[in-house]
Write a structure and sequence with these properties.
Elements (H helix, E strand, L loop, with lengths): L6 H4 L2 H4 L20 E4 L7 E4 L13 H25 L3 H26 L3 H28 L3 H9 L2
Antiparallel strand pairs: 1-2
Helix pairs in contact: 3-4, 4-5
Subcellular location: Mitochondrion inner membrane
Protein name: Succinate dehydrogenase [ubiquinone] cytochrome b small subunit
Keywords: Electron transport, Heme, Iron, Membrane, Metal-binding, Mitochondrion, Mitochondrion inner membrane, Transit peptide, Transmembrane, Transmembrane helix, Transport, Tricarboxylic acid cycle
Length: 163
C-alpha cells in the first residue's frame, strides 16, 4: 500500500505507529472480528473521515447470556454495597446468610474472570474451573457453618473492629 506524498503528516500518531493497518491471521479475520476502519478522502481535501463498523457481525450476536451475566454481576455488586451498611446497622442471621451468598457469588465470578483471562489449554481450563467450583462450594459451606455454629459474619466483623 503506497501512501500519497504528504499523507503521513495527516495521520495520527497511532496510525503512523502501524496500529491502523489491517492485520492478517485466523483470529483477526473478518469471520471472527471486524475492526473499525478509516477511509481517506481525496488528497485535495486533506480530511480524514472515520467510518464505524460494528465489532461483531449481526449473525454472530444472537445470544444475550453475556449481557445478562454482566447485569447479574453489577446487581450483586450493588447488593453488596447495600448489605455492608445493613450488616453494621441491623446485624442478624438474615444479613449473615445474605452476605455469605453474595460474597461467595461475587468471589466466584471474579475468580472465574481470572481463569478465563489467564488459564489456557483445554485440560488446564477444566481443572481450573473444577477447582473454582470446589473453592466456591467450600467457601459458601464454611461461611454458612460459621454463621450457624459461631457468632456470624456481622458479629465477627464487629468484634474485629473493637480490637
Amino acid at each position: 500500500m503506497a501512501a500519497a506524498p504528504g499523507l503521513p503528516l495527516l495521520l495520527p500518531p497511532l496510525l503512523r505507529a502501524g496500529l491502523g493497518r489491517p492485520r492478517g491471521g485466523v483470529l483477526l479475520s473478518r469471520v471472527w472480528m471486524t475492526r473499525p476502519t478509516l477511509a481517506y478522502a481525496p488528497i485535495q481535501e486533506r480530511r480524514l473521515q472515520a467510518c464505524n463498523i460494528h465489532t461483531s457481525p449481526r449473525s454472530l450476536a444472537g445470544s444475550q447470556s453475556a449481557s445478562l451475566h454482566w447485569t447479574g454481576e453489577r446487581a450483586v455488586s450493588v447488593l453488596l454495597l447495600g448489605l455492608l451498611p445493613a450488616a453494621y446497622l441491623y446485624p442478624g442471621p438474615a444479613i449473615d446468610y445474605s452476605l455469605a451468598a453474595t460474597l461467595t457469588l461475587h468471589g466466584h465470578w471474579g475468580l472465574g474472570q481470572v481463569v478465563t483471562d489467564y488459564v489456557h489449554g483445554e485440560t488446564s481450563i477444566k481443572v481450573a474451573n473444577t477447582g473454582l467450583y470446589l473453592l466456591s462450594a467450600v467457601t459458601f459451606a464454611g461461611l454458612c457453618y460459621f454463621n450457624y455454629h459461631d457468632v456470624g459474619i456481622c458479629k465477627a466483623v464487629a468484634m474485629l473492629w473493637s480490637l
